[in-house]
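Journal club prep — side note

Before the paper discussion, L.F. wants everyone to see what a predicted structure for a comparable chain looks like in token form. Sequence:
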Amino acid sequence: MRRQKGFSLIELLIVVAIILIIAAIAIPNLLRARMAANESAAVSSIRTIATAEVSYITSYPTVGYAAALTNLGGTSSACTAPSQGNACLVDDVLATNGGGNGKAGYNFKADAEGSNNMQYAATAVPITVGSTGQRSFCSVPDSVVRYNSGGGAIANAAACLALSAVN
């Protein structure tokens, strides 16, 4: 009788089952790690926007805060001579919200509010709550980053002020 070389079907099925069990354990942890990284990047971007807003109102005191997030950015060619419309204070990817597709799993927005643009609200909302991020974040002129644990949109500066601060 000849001996066959190789693995039997049962042995291969056992190996596949073990790989599937390991994947079932590892994939949720990987997704949680990715969401945590996205949230960390969103908080950092909100802090960047808050710092840019302070620089903007310092540079253009008669204008107030930037009317829109796009006013804080600018392409490299526009940054040779910064202006109210292209202040060149944040990178263009953040300023344009990733070309409308978001950045690191979040959609960013910063709008001036109130008379003479003396208030602003910067927000970061997950593109898909529970997948790209769990919490939404915001900041107002006090530069404290706050969060909404439900991940929903934050309407304005007053709504942001009612939320808890990120530690």
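L.F.'s comment for the group: The longest strand covers residues 106-113. Keep this in mind when we get to the figures.
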